[in-house]
Specification:
Shape: globular
Bound molecules: thymidine-5'-triphosphate, magnesium ion
Structural class: alpha+beta
Radius of gyration: 22 Å
Largest sheet: 6 strands, mixed
CATH topology of the largest domain: Dna Ligase, domain 1
Order of helices and strands: EHEEHHEHEEHEHEHHHHHEHEEHEEE
Distance between the termini: 38 Å
Length: 356
């Protein structure tokens, strides 16, 4: 019997902040851009469950979050804190199975088929939760199922601090009432298209003829059908590669002022550098991203001849390309910089994308 466990930290960035500042615990906490009394222009990265009660959620404009709860505690990012907490909890999780896959800064899959029963799997899950709480003072939610798909959806079922176990025979009753978008790879657009076809739930997908799904969604139609029946044979992939480190900032007012833009670039470059240093990475490719006021977004890449952790190249590249972006008449809404093609200085190490 295959038993897959998915673990996802609860409101991760917010929980890390709460841990560092016990006095804010119990109050609504929002991590993200500066709200500037409702005039701020970035987005919410995450918020704690107290803030979610006001309807605040990840990726929402920070101004909308402020409107919903002006008294919430709004905090800027502290990426070093989140990276180190992530490394610490991942080190705990990976002790429970040699088949371990980190999939983002705060989630991982473990193949715990060696448990052989759901009772034993439950004990492993409880041990993981207890160790993360005891050693790192952080809670997580865990889902257990016959595959990654079911385990991940189960992990989201009873957040925060939840544990949900779905044995094979309960997979269909568990998945069927859920919205089609609950399935892996079904984003907002695909879900809308499904809804237009009268397909609202996972059960509706399961009841749709294969040809109809294939006709509308190509080969993904077949995967959709398999997933709707709870089938997923994706393996645990043990290497986790950080693809990039980056930062982006939305301007308070759209601008074409080169000095102002360079000031922002000068404020994000040291953050990228700190993150690189804290993970002992070097990089080879630089990316500058510009979003104009109409949301059209352009990127410019540059690959260096050698890996380096020198930050001067970042500033130079930004300066060289900014002028070109400013030849456009439109104002700039957002600027971002990131480094890719990362390598650890001494040994290869597991990695992920960290662009917030
Ligand atoms: P998630 O696990 O999606 O969210 P979460 O841990 O904050 O909350 P939940 O309890 O629902 O799991 O993402 C992990 C972290 O990634 C999150 O704490 C902040 C960051 N993040 C963003 O910066 N922007 C986003 O849009 C999302 C979804 C996450
Ligand atoms: Mg999480």
């Amino acid at each position: 019997m295959r038993i897959i466990l998915h673990v996802d930290m609860d409101c991760f960035f917010a929980q890390c902040e709460e841990r560092e500042r016990p006095q804010i615990k119990g109050k609504p906490v929002v991590v993200g851009a500066d709200p500037k009394n409702g005039a701020g222009r970035g987005v919410v990265s995450t918020c704690n469950y107290e803030a979610r009660a006001f309807g605040i959620k990840s990726a929402m404009p920070i101004s909308a979050a402020w409107k919903r709860c002006p008294n919430a505690i709004f905090l800027p990012h502290n990426f070093e804190l989140y990276s180190s907490a992530s490394r610490a909890v991942m080190a705990i999780f990976r002790k429970y199975s040699h088949k371990f896959e980190q999939v983002s800064i705060d989630e991982a899959y473990l193949d715990i088929s060696h448990a052989e029963s759901h009772d034993a799997a439950r004990k492993i899950a409880l041990a993981i939760k207890a160790e993360a709480l005891e050693k790192e003072k952080l809670t997580c939610s865990i889902g257990i199922g016959p595959n990654k798909l079911v385990a991940k959806i189960a992990a989201g079922e009873r957040k925060p601090n939840g544990l949900t176990i779905i044995p094979a025979e309960e997979v269909e009753p568990f998945l069927f009432p859920k919205k089609a978008g609950a399935l892996f790879g079904i984003g907002i657009k695909t879900e809308q298209r499904l809804n237009e076809l009268g397909i609202m739930t996972v059960q509706d997908i399961a009841n749709t003829p294969e040809e109809v799904l294939a006709e509308n969604f190509g080969s993904f139609g077949y995967s959709m059908l398999a997933m709707a029946h709870g089938n997923d044979d994706r393996e645990i992939v043990q290497e986790w590669i950080t693809k990039s480190i980056g930062r982006q900032i939305t301007f308070e007012h759209d601008t074409r002022d080169e000095r102002k833009i360079m000031d922002v670039i000068d404020s994000i470059i040291p953050e990228i550098y700190r993150e690189l240093r804290s993970q002992d990475f070097t990089y080879k490719t630089l990316v500058l991203k510009v979003r104009y006021s109409d949301f059209e977004t352009h990127t410019k890449n540059k690959t260096l001849p050698h890996h380096t952790n020198n930050i001067k190249a970042l500033r130079l590249m930004a300066q060289e390309n900014l002028a070109r972006f400013l030849m456009d008449k439109r104002k700039i809404r957002l600027i971002g910089m990131s480094v890719h093609n990362l390598r650890e200085k001494h040994i290869k190490q597991p990695q992920q994308t960290l662009t917030i």
